[in-house]
């Protein structure tokens, strides 16, 4: 991979006292370290449970450096030299000031008083002109040359290259001269209210800068497509006194925009080197291909990356090293991930009444990490080292290398992932479970009847129920179905197969809900097809004249759960709901969409449920194996934070269609409904993660419920849900035995069989910083950071959360720079190869509608976005925070491949082009004003750009290769996302283009967020402060 670098140095201000272990400022000692994350500041550093981001620790000596690989990436304006794909090492954690990733206040009211006068635009232009890009070769250090990293050097008056590792302390304040030197690199916007200034992007940048004011602060990506409004600016108060610029050196050419690391380049390089190949999981600690690279996974002893991805595949061997490195140690586990048709499905192991073989001490399941000894009569557990007897029925002799001779015949000894048939000991009340049931609950209030939604749902259910999921060996699905409608009261339907007509029973007492019938409520669809179809025809007519606009919500979930409980089976509720539940009943809600709370300490309450009844309901649902999928059709505020809570904690899925119109939105909704009903899943699931000695799982993030500190409970788990698990050291790790992880999920299958799904993964351990950085995966890191941040906003001010994100980014990179890069000027920004695109994703996360803190974004939209992301896997967060932008005008209609994506920036758009943007939730087709008429004609079947209607949400089926190719590309993108993406057609220079531009994440946002380059400058400034 090309490793590139750049110089950029805008400032960040001093810290907020009292957060974790960050020092409140340069002049004060650090608070006691909290090796955790966003946590209650009252927690001690030895707290056993985990918190979120690792904060700083007092400085000791740097961890020992390994022998870095013998290649370094060199970069200058004229050339890029490719080295092997690279490494990185770790470094100390620095007690430095927390960045003030401050609140979004009006430009005239910065969050803090500004102590540093802005430098002039002309001064900025000179500074940018003086940035020079130097390559540097191997250092004279006694070790081998350092690992590849990226660096662009600025010709600044900076200290001489560092020739030894620094031992930083949180001692006296920075000297004025150093402060001047640092501040002199800062664009004006960085030290005043606006975002940090950028490094030069192109030859015209000086001209642009002299004509334009610095842009406003951090914006959202509008999920809700709120109308564009002027955004308030982000304050970056000056943390250091400013002084005259101290720049030297001849004028240099401007930085090429392509000189900063490109996610597209990283993705394409990985596709070239690893795409289309077989990835065998036979090596502990190997880094898998990126999630964006297609390959065939062959299980040879470790779980496939489809099930298991890690932030680092080599863990630091000690807690001290982990604190120093600041890299979160986490795994993103997707236990029910789909595998490709040409990959082997999981084997099912059945040991009969004996059940799975487990370690007597730690209860880990038999797996490839167990070592057989004493001629095969005993085995030593790979997790806790306990020696166990081998049961007589399981005995087998060992070969000449100490391996059982049936090693390759037993999936549990030779594969990373497999399943066990569970015995009655693993069942509730020691009774075998019943097959699950699906209950469809339809809101028949006035608005849903009038807009045709109820009729649409009923028509679709008649056909989609033929596609209920089933086990592969079954001819028909064993899932039973039931139907309820509701407004202020509940209507249950008896659809027993021997009835001529369905029967309705009304429950008016919504305060104490009960199920009025058992026999005939949950039925086999095939047997009761005619009665069910009859009912689905009658429901829209039955309520056609309703004037009832008030609805209940909590009683509906209660009723569905009680029905499943009475039938003694797990199941799923499909609830179709459209309004705030204002009827007198448990769970009644009031409108509280108070945008005045944005950017205040009370903003976190907007993400919390307004009543605890939904929390209690979620707990009861999980205990009874009742999963809730919620389809929302709001035309105004519905309090997603409250009514979506049960869905989130039960492992369900939330779908939301704002201002639903049958003619324009039914395609998206019906695709979602079909996909959701047909999905294969496990019910009544409990997941436990076991680890080898020396570290343990401390925190779990996802659409889950936790009754204790170890068991992750999910009423259901499907192929799209992922749980992010964080690990923490409790002792030293052994480099020889590595770090072993076993994830076991106990669940009920769709046929009603209790099964165990086991995934095993072995990671390496090292006392060398270089090895840890080299093994990092940026996409997994972002998944961890976003979930940690989205969890933290429930209890902490958003400003604090944003500060921690920026600070942690800078600390990880400064740590690498201090201990791993060859000595060079502090003004040079050097990034580890494995994290070189981390800043672009982090900036995108900070601009997301959840963290942006903009009053223009609806509270519901932010809560919805937060809930979606909490359940996402690595591929989902990767695409969401760096959307795919495809140039349609350059696609080869004869080739099977997509056109190569371009970077998410307006600079990459062209007036003569068509671009398709997809982020997994939204999809846009952008049309340039000079797009070729023949292309427009071929895709839209209209003569020119002016004739294209932007109202359409699906493309017409035109009989030509161009149209077919584009539609097949869209279908493929849709198939990879758990959600159906509604296509919005956007014309260049028309008003809706503002919405589209929110997704061009490398640019400054029209709502005020900094560009990728600006953010790099901020991070670099933070790193410089840490290093100095």
Any overview of this molecule?
Residues 433-676 form the Sec23/Sec24 trunk domain. Residues 1-16, 74-93, 117-137 have a biased composition (Polar residues). It is found in: Cytoplasm, Cytosol; Cytoplasmic vesicle, COPII-coated vesicle membrane; Endoplasmic reticulum membrane. One of its GO terms (biological process) is intracellular protein transport. Pfam families: Gelsolin, Sec23_BS, Sec23_helical, Sec23_trunk, zf-Sec23_Sec24. With 1028 residues, the chain is an alpha+beta fold. The protein has 26 helices and 33 strands. Strands 7, 9, 13, 22, 24, 25, 27 and 28 form an eight-stranded mixed sheet that branches. A hairpin with a 5-residue loop joins strand 27 (739-748) and strand 28 (754-766). Helix 18 (798-819) packs across helix 26 (1012-1027). The radius of gyration is 29 Å and the shape is globular. The two termini are 30 Å apart.
């Amino acid at each position: 991979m090309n490793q590139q670098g750049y110089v950029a140095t805008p400032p960040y201000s001093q810290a907020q006292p009292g957060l974790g272990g960050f020092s409140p400022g340069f002049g004060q000692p650090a608070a006691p370290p909290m090796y955790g994350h966003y946590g209650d500041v009252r927690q001690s550093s030895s707290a056993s449970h985990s918190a979120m981001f690792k904060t700083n620790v007092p400085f000791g000596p740097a961890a020992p450096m390994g022998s870095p690989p013998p290649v370094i990436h060199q970069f200058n304006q004229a050339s890029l030299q490719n080295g092997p794909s690279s490494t990185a090492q770790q470094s100390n954690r620095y007690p430095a000031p927390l960045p003030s990733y401050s609140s979004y206040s009006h430009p005239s009211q910065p969050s803090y008083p500004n102590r540093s006068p802005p430098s002039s635009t002309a001064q900025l232009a000179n500074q940018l002109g003086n940035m020079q890009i130097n390559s540097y070769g191997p250092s004279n250090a006694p070790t081998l040359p350092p690992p590849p990293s990226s660096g662009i050097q600025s010709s600044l008056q900076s200290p001489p290259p560092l020739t030894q590792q620094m031992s930083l302390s949180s001692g006296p304040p920075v000297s004025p001269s150093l402060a001047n030197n640092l501040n002199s690199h800062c664009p004006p916007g960085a030290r005043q209210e606006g975002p940090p200034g950028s490094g030069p992007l192109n030859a015209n940048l000086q001209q642009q800068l002299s004509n334009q004011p610095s842009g406003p602060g951090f914006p959202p990506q509008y999920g809700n497509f709120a109308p564009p409004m002027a955004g308030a600016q982000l304050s970056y108060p000056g943390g250091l006194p400013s002084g005259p610029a101290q720049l030297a050196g001849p004028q240099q050419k401007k930085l090429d925009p392509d000189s900063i690391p490109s996610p597209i380049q990283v993705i394409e390089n990985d596709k070239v080197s690893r795409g289309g190949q077989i990835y065998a999981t036979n090596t502990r600690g190997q880094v898998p291909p990126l999630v964006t690279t297609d390959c065939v996974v062959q299980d040879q002893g470790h779980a496939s990356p489809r099930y298991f991805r890690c932030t680092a595949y080599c863990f630091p061997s000690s807690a001290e090293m982990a604190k120093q490195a600041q890299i979160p140690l986490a795994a993103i586990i997707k236990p029910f991930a789909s595998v490709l048709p040409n990959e082997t499905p999981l084997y099912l192991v059945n040991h009969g009444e004996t059940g799975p073989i487990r370690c007597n001490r730690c209860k880990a399941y038999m797996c490839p990490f167990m070592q057989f000894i004493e001629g095969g009569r005993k085995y030593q557990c790979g997790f806790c080292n306990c020696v166990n007897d081998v049961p007589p029925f399981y005995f087998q002799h060992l070969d000449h290398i100490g391996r059982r001779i049936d090693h390759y015949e037993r999936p549990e000894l030779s594969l990373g992932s497999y399943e066990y048939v569970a015995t009655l000991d693993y069942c509730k009340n020691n009774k075998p479970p019943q097959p699950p049931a699906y209950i469809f609950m339809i809101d028949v209030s006035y608005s849903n009847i009038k807009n045709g939604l109820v009729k649409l749902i009923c028509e679709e259910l008649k056909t989609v129920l033929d596609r209920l999921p089933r086990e592969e060996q079954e001819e028909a699905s064993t899932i039973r179905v039931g139907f309820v409608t509701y407004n202020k009261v509940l209507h249950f339907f008896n659809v027993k197969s021997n009835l001529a007509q369905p029967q309705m029973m009304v429950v008016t007492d919504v305060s104490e809900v009960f199920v009025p019938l058992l026999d005939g409520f949950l039925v086999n669809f095939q047997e009761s097809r005619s009665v069910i179809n009859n009912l689905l025809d009658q429901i829209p007519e039955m309520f056609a004249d309703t004037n009832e606009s008030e609805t209940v919500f909590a009683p509906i979930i209660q009723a569905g759960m009680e029905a499943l409980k009475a039938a003694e089976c797990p199941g799923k509720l499909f609830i179709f709901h459209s309004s705030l539940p204002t009827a007198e009943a448990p769970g009644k809600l009031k409108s509280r969409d108070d945008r005045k709370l944005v950017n205040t300490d009370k903003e976190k309450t907007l993400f919390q449920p307004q009543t605890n009844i939904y929390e209690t309901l979620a707990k009861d649902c999980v205990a009874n194996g009742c999963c809730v999928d919620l389809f929302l059709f709001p035309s105004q505020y519905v309090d997603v934070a409250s009514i979506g809570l049960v869905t989130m904690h039960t492992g369900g899925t939330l779908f939301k269609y704002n201002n639903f119109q049958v003619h324009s939105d039914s395609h998206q909704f019906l695709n979602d409904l079909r996909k959701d009903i047909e999905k294969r899943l496990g019910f009544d699931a409990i997941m436990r993660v076991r680890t080898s000695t020396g570290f343990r799982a401390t925190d779990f993030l996802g659409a889950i419920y936790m009754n204790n500190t170890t068991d992750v409970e999910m009423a259901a788990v499907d192929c799209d849900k992922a749980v992010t698990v964080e690990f923490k050291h409790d002792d030293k790790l052994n480099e020889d035995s590595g770090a072993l992880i076993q994830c076991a999920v106990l669940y009920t299958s769709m046929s009603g069989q209790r099964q165990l799904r086991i995934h095993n993964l072995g990671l390496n351990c090292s006392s060398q910083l270089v090895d840890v950085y080299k093994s990092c995966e940026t996409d997994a890191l972002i998944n961890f950071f976003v979930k940690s941040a989205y969890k933290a906003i429930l209890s902490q001010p958003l400003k604090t959360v944003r500060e921690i994100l920026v600070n942690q980014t800078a600390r990880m990179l400064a740590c690498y720079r201090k201990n791993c890069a060859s000595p060079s000027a502090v003004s040079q920004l050097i990034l580890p190869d494995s994290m070189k695109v981390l800043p672009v994703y982090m900036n995108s996360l900070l601009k997301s509608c959840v963290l942006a803190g903009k009053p223009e974004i609806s509270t519901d939209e932010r809560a919805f976005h937060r809930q979606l992301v909490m359940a996402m896997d690595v591929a989902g967060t990767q695409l969401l925070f760096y959307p795919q932008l495809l140039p349609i005008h350059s696609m080869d209609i004869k080739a099977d491949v997509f056109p190569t994506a371009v970077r998410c920036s307006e600079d990459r758009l062209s007036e003569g082009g068509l671009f398709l943007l997809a982020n997994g939730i939204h999809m846009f087709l952008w049309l340039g004003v000079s797009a070729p008429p023949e292309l427009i004609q071929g895709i839209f079947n209209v003569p020119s750009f002016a004739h294209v209607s932007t109202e359409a949400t699906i493309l017409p089926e035109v009989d030509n290769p161009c149209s077919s190719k584009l539609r097949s590309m869209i279908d493929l993108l849709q198939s990879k996302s758990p959600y159906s993406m509604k296509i919005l057609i956007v014309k260049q220079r028309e008003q809706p283009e503002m919405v589209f531009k929110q997704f061009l994440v490398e640019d400054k946002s029209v709502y005020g967020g900094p560009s990728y380059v600006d953010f790099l400058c901020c991070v670099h400034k933070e790193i410089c402060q840490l290093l100095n």
